[in-house]
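REQUEST ID: PR-0412
SUBMITTED BY: lab tech R.K.
PRIORITY: routine
TASK: structure prediction, single protein chain
INPUT:
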Amino acid sequence: MKHANVALFVPHAGCPYRCSFCNQRTISGALNSPVAQDVRKACEIAVKSGNANPENSEIAFFGGSFTAIDEEYMISLLESAKEYIDKKYFKGIRISTRPDCIDGRKLEILKRYGVTSIELGAQSMDNSVLALNNRGHSAEDVVNASRLISEYGFSLGLQMMTGLFGSDRDKDILTARRLIDLKPDTVRIYPTIVLENTELAKRLETGEYKAQSLDEAVELCALLLLMFRKNGVKVIRLGLHSGGSVEEGYIAGAYHPAFRELCEGEIYLKQMLECLGKKDRGRQYVIEVPQKSISKAIGQSKRNEKALKKAGFYCKIKGNDFLDDYEIKVKEL
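STATUS: complete
OUTPUT:
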């Protein structure tokens, strides 16, 4: 079924801190904050395209700390969006904000104007990592805000980052575990990208910070993806979206326009090697994967096929409509 999520970026608006990694104008390509008329225009475009759907389409405000911006301005944006919720073009409004900018009064306002989903930029659940990256909130703020959001009946989304300054693989895995404990509906995972005009770029230049490599991020995020899936949490974004001015502002870090596909390819490769591990090398095998995941199982530029061959296995990968995500079957030819 067609759908169109209307995404509006509010760069830096409401943010009382400048995080070490943050250059939202580069990420979104947005130079100016939207006004009410911009919201209406974006919604009209989606409606006229025929893609708006009240079952699975949302109007989303991302980029800043939505509940920290001037209240009158915030309500003007929400009022404009609510017009299209009331007309049944969209199912609701999604907002992104800081964990320390949530309280009962703000949640009452959000509910009144049709907000259904709230995402918190947790980024890490390690207080030392949060402090080193100028986040200005604590892990306890994430816990408290998550509890309030769930109690008020909103869909809870949490965002985390891997490879932050001061973090490591173990701390990132612990962050994922603590987020799972909060029982969010959705999660976004972002490997840290070093962008120009950020504190992290300065730390990289002085050698104080070492950026996570693409291979390191893929291996870790593949593991995190399976962790969240096993615990019933939907990962709705894996890796920074392409577009805006990301490519122009990129300096270092694990950025790839098809990052999720790389991670899912890694999952399939490990699954295949594990299943083949006890079988005879030099023989030919058929590996069945979900029909929709054939390209992921083969890997970008046939990376996985080459890895299997290097390991001594000659395999043909084919689709099976009855297999679930990441499920495989191995048969000898």
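NOTES: The CA atoms of residues 226 and 267 lie 8 Å apart.
REVIEWED BY: pending
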